[in-house]
Design a protein that fits this description.
Blueprint (H helix, E strand, L loop, with lengths): L2 H20 L5 H8 L3 H7 L3 H23 L6 H18 L11 H23 L11 H15 L6 H16 L11
Helix pairs in contact: 1-2, 1-4, 2-3, 4-5, 4-6, 5-7, 5-8, 7-8
Length: about 190
Amino acid sequence: MRADAARNLEAVLVTGARMLAVDPGVSMAGIAAEAGVDRRTVYRRFASREELLAAVYEARLSAVEGAIADARLGEAPVAVALHRYVENVIGVNRKWPVDLARMLADDAVRARRDACVRDVEAFLRRATCEGLLREDLPPGWAATVLPELVTLAAHGQAHRDAGRAADLVVESFLRGAGAAGAAVRPAG
């Protein structure tokens, strides 16, 4: 794909994600206009709103998978991996604000999303075993609370900077789920 075509596609997908999150009925012509591309450009690439929406969901899911891989949940020190994961996912949620849950009817999408959830749950078990998280929490509680905090930080006005928003999430998470004496901020 040519560089300008790739930029146009990215602009359409990011703009589409943002506009569809606000108004699921927004037209493709409206998305094209807001993205600064000709509507024919959008229609050449996507035959329907459903195809555009599927591409937006694909881009979001790929970004989540990349965020998880970049956080190195299985290798990095747990406090570092936690902060990196939270910061990455805040960035994904801000760039791709659409709700992936609407696409979970697709078995392939659901399988990829479930793999992401399993990776994070395994990391949280590791964090508990290594003493970063409390052992006395109900099963699955940390895995329920963390995404909610990330969503609040991604869509709230606490910090526009993803790193500072991640600081707030990690501090809040560890003060509620952290083991006594757990480091609030990652070393390094």
